[in-house]
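so my prof wants the structure for this chain in the tokens format not the other one, which i didnt know existed until like an hour ago. anyway here's the sequence
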Amino acid sequence: MPCALCFALCACSTMRDVAEPVALEDGFNTPASDGTFPIALTSIQRGSIPGQYAYQTGFEQDVGMRVFAGLMPDAVVSGSVGGSAIFDARYQGSRTSEIAITPATTPGGDPILTGTSGAFSGDITLTVDMAGTALTGSDGLLAVNGQIDGQTLAGTVTYRGLDGSLTGLIGEDEAIGAFFATSDTTIYAGGFAGKAR
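here's what i got, hopefully its the right format
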């Protein structure tokens, strides 16, 4: 269920002008073994699958909304995909939309950052092409467009119309991915894991 977010941005914020779009920080990072990232956030949304992926979104004072995703330190796959294959995957993530900054309402007050936050999840079928070089699939909400190089997976995702970045691993029996995206008004992060049929 989506929930409303509301944060005061202190006067020393890196935001120079409240009329400018919120500065969004993002990136792929390696999480700790417990699936957390070393940063202090409030209103944290996070998720992880042991041995696979982790993600985290939230608000950092004086910075704004932050988004992180990455493969777990012990994520491994076996073998490689030599040709066409189908993976039945489950994905999950967190998304904050309608991000906006409202100017301070009182003299000397702080501007307010608002947004609507919620979790998402679903099932997706991912297909490897005959050459074994591409992994693609869509369930109508999340679309995956990955390129395969040995066991390495890289490329893009699209969730609810916003394009994001993808990193992951793929082997003969398993595919693992982590992804994130940012825009001036929306962020999301998540991951997927699937087994070959």
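also thought this was worth mentioning. The chain has a mean pLDDT of 87.
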